[in-house]
Each structure stands twice: as C-alpha cells, then as structure tokens.
C-alpha cells in the first residue's frame, strides 16, 4: 500500500466516522423531540393517568440526552484517530441500545393498561368537578380539546350536582352540563351567547385512543432508533478496526524506511560496508602547510 493510498484510506475512515456521529446527533435530537412531545400529550391529561405512564417518556428523553453527549466521543475519536474513543463510543451505544429496547417494551406493555386506568380515573374524578379546581380544569381541557362530553356521554353529568344554583353551565333535560361541552353556540345579543348543541361523544374512548396511540408511537420510535443504533454500532467497530489496521500499516512503513536508511550504510561483510565520506575541518590554531 502506497503512502498516498494509506492517507486516503485514513481520510475516508475519518469522514465516515464523522458522518456517523453527525447522524447520531440528529437522531438524538429527534429522540428528544419525540419524547418531549409525548410527555406534553400525557401532561395535558395527567390528572387521569398514573405516574407509570410518564416513565417511558422520561426514559426516552434521558436516552436522547445521553446519546447527544456520547456522540462527542465518536467525533473526537474520528478527529484524533483514536481507536480507544471509537470503541468506547460503540460500547456506550450498545448499552444505550439495551435501554431503548427496555423503553420500547415498557411503552408497549402500558398500552394494555390504558383503558382500565383512564376509565377508572375519569369516573372517580367526575363527582368532584365542582369541588376540586384541578378536576374542573382537567375536564374542561379534555372536553374542549377532544370535542367530547362526560365519560360515556353528556348524561353522566346527571349524577354530578352543582354546589349552588349560581354555578354556570348548560341545562339540558334538567342536567347541568359544563360549558366546555358546548359544540356550537350563537350570540343572543352582543354580550350573551347561547349553546345550541353539545358534543355527542363521551371522553373516555377519545382519551384512551390518544394515550394508546401515543404509547405506540413512543415504542415504535424507540425501536426504530434502536435499529439505527445497531447499524451505527457495527460501523463504529468496523471503523475502529480500520483505524487500527491503517495505523499498523503506517508504523510498518515507517519501520521499513528506517531499516532501509540503516542498511544503506551497514553490511554483514566488512569489505562491502559502505563508508560515509569523511570531511576534515581544521580546528582553531591549526596552521596550513
């Protein structure tokens, strides 16, 4: 292998590793964005969820942050041509891969618990709508954003009695329904609006669908990123091997050059030994004849 080919090979290895680390930086940012988006969705309906639903999202966000910092090892390893840093980069990616698979399994396993948890929390919280500000805000948010009313239908509000007659709401068939259940309203005058229709669907199936799909998206995203990491791990170990091989070739060529320089003036036969020319330089005080 010529010197130019060797340097070209090392340069290609370096650029390939830099491309891989850049890909992982983008992947880390994508993981963090997916995790924060799902976390925000869960936070909007957090009153009706248990804390265990937030664990996979927090886990995925932490994995993204770790990968973002770990990518520095690959970048520095590529610039320094360090097999140690590149191998460390690949090993940490392998450990993060295990964490991602665990997060995906946790997200998928929680999907089976969505219906029971959300349904139970909605039914338990509904009677406290007029007593608890958090419950009222959560129900109003869900009903207005998801275009629904009650747990199964607006008739569920018949079992919830307002604290006093001054409580604002929509009266339908002697049932006081929160204003957030209004699907369409019209203005009677400049300052007064009247509700003309309510949301027909209950909130339970819509909240279940929202959380169920979010958990599925989180699990799918984690598995997709895990697959990308497998490719990155294989490439990282391969490139570390290539760097080691290129360094060995470079050392071998340096050793050959040194041996040639030494052997150019040294021989096993004293009569064949090449003598370097001797130059006599007069020292101070020497007189010429």
TrEMBL record:
SUPFAM superfamilies according to UniProt: Tetraspanin
Keywords tagged on the record: Membrane, Transmembrane, Transmembrane helix
Topology class, membrane: Multi-pass membrane protein
One Pfam family in the UniProt entry: Tetraspanin
Keyword Transmembrane part of the UniProt annotation: yes
Keyword Transmembrane helix: yes
One GO CC term, this protein: plasma membrane
Source superkingdom: Eukaryota
Family statement drawn from the similarity comment of this UniProt entry: Belongs to the tetraspanin (TM4SF) family.
The protein's name: Tetraspanin
């Amino acid at each position: 292998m010529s010197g130019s080919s060797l340097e070209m090979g090392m340069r290609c290895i370096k650029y390939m590793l830099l491309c891989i680390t850049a890909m992982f930086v983008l992947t880390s940012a994508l993981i963090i964005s997916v995790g924060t988006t799902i976390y925000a969705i869960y936070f909007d309906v957090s009153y009706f969820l248990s804390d265990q639903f937030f664990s996979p999202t927090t886990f995925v966000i932490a994995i993204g942050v770790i990968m973002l910092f770990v990518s520095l090892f690959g970048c520095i390893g590529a610039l320094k041509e360090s097999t140690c840093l590149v191998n460390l980069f690949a090993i940490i990616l392998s450990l993060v891969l295990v964490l991602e698979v665990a997060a995906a399994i946790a997200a998928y396993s929680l999907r089976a618990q969505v219906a029971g948890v959300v349904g139970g929390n909605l039914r338990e919280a509904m009677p406290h709508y007029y007593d608890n500000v958090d419950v009222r805000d959560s129900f109003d948010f869900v009903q207005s954003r998801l275009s629904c009313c009650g747990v199964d239908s607006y008739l569920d509000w018949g079992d919830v009695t307002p604290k006093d007659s001054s409580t604002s709401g929509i009266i339908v068939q002697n049932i006081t329904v929160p204003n957030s259940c209004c699907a369409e309203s019209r203005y009677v005058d400049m300052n007064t609006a009247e509700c003309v229709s309510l949301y027909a669907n209950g909130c339970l199936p819509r909240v279940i669908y929202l959380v169920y799909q979010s958990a599925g998206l989180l699990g799918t995203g984690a598995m997709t990123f895990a697959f990308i990491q497998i490719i990155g791990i294989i490439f990282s170990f391969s490139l570390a091997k290539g760097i080691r091989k290129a360094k060995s070739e470079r050392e071998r060529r340096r050793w050959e050059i040194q041996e040639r320089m030494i052997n150019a003036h040294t021989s096993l036969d004293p009569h064949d030994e090449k003598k370097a020319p001797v130059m006599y330089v007069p020292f101070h005080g020497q007189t010429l004849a």
